[in-house]
Specification:
This protein starts with a helix and ends in an 11-residue tail after the last strand. The chain is built from 3 helices and 4 strands; from the N terminus they run ααββαββ. 29% of the residues lie in helices and 27% in strands. The radius of gyration is 14 Å and the shape is globular.
C-alpha cells in the first residue's frame, strides 16, 4: 500500500500520509512486541478509514506515561492519539485486534478495502 494507492481510492495526500503513519506504527508494534504474525485490514466508512492489525499475542498495548528522551520507542500510541485517531483494542480467540479509526475531515473514500 502506498500514498498513490490511497490517492487512487479518493484519500487526499495529507490523509494518506496519516494513514501510512498509523499503519507503520501498528505493524511495527506487532513486529516488536509479538511473534510478528499479523494481518492488516483497511476499511473505508463514510468519512473515516479504519486500520486494523490483528496478532497472536494476548498482551495488550499500553501507553507509556513519560518515556525518556533517549529511549527507543514508547511514543507511538500517544502520537496516534495526538493525530486524532480513535484506538480500540479487542481481545480475540487467537490474540487481539488493534484498530485505529481516522477521520478524513469530510473526504469520502471509495473502494478502500484490503
Amino acid at each position: 500500500m502506498t500514498a498513490r494507492w490511497l490517492a487512487a481510492r479518493g484519500v487526499s495526500s495529507g490523509s494518506a500520509s496519516d494513514v501510512l503513519l498509523i499503519v507503520s506504527e501498528l505493524v511495527t508494534n506487532t513486529l516488536r512486541h509479538t511473534d510478528g504474525t499479523c494481518t492488516l485490514t483497511l476499511t473505508a466508512h463514510a468519512t473515516t478509514v479504519g486500520i486494523t492489525v490483528t496478532d497472536t499475542s494476548s498482551r495488550l498495548p499500553r501507553m507509556r506515561s513519560d518515556p525518556a528522551a533517549n529511549e527507543d520507542g514508547g511514543r507511538g500510541l500517544a502520537l496516534l492519539y495526538g493525530m486524532g485517531a480513535r484506538l480500540t483494542v479487542t481481545p480475540t480467540l487467537r490474540g487481539k485486534a488493534v484498530e485505529a479509526t481516522l477521520d478524513l475531515g469530510g473526504e469520502a473514500p471509495h473502494g478502500l478495502a484490503e
